[in-house]
């Protein structure tokens, strides 16, 4: 037997629209078999990965909206292209 539950993430901001993501989960009862607990943990791990991917997508979109409002998209794109590289300014 399992108990219904959910993993939920909520984002709020003064400048962007909020969002809430929720994925249903099942949790085994405390007397559940080891196999049921393993399956529940596996489902939880998969849900966390899925939730993180969706959060990253949403936050990237909001960052791009913020940059567009601030007019910094071109500067950020150049910084992203040079990420991890030493950039020498020419005089």
Question: How would you describe this protein?
Answer:
This protein is an alpha+beta fold and 91 residues long. The protein is built from two helices and two strands, in the order E-E-H-H. A two-stranded antiparallel ribbon has the order 1-2. Strand 1 (2-11) and strand 2 (19-28) form a beta hairpin. The longest helix has 37 residues, at 34-70.
Features of this protein?
91 residues, single chain, alpha+beta, two-stranded antiparallel ribbon
Alpha-beta classification: alpha+beta
The end-to-end distance, rounded to whole angstroms, is 71 Å
Outline, from the CA principal axes? elongated
Q: How is the largest sheet built, in terms of strand order?
A: 1-2
Biased composition (Low complexity): 20-31
Biased composition (Acidic residues): 82-91
Keywords: Activator, Chromosome, Nucleus, Telomere, Transcription, Transcription regulation, tRNA processing
Protein name: EKC/KEOPS complex subunit GON7
Write the layout of secondary structure elements.
Layout: E1 2-11, E2 19-28, H1 34-70, H2 73-81
Antiparallel strand pairs: 1-2
């Amino acid at each position: 037997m399992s108990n219904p539950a959910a993993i939920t993430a909520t984002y709020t901001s003064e400048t962007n629209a909020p969002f809430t993501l929720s994925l249903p989960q099942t949790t085994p009862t405390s007397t559940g078999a080891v196999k049921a607990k393993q399956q529940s943990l596996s489902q939880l791990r998969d849900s966390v990965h899925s939730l993180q991917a969706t959060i990253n997508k949403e936050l990237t979109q909001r960052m791009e909206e913020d940059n567009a409002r601030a007019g910094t998209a071109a500067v950020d794109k150049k910084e992203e292209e040079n990420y991890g590289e030493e950039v020498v300014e020419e005089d």
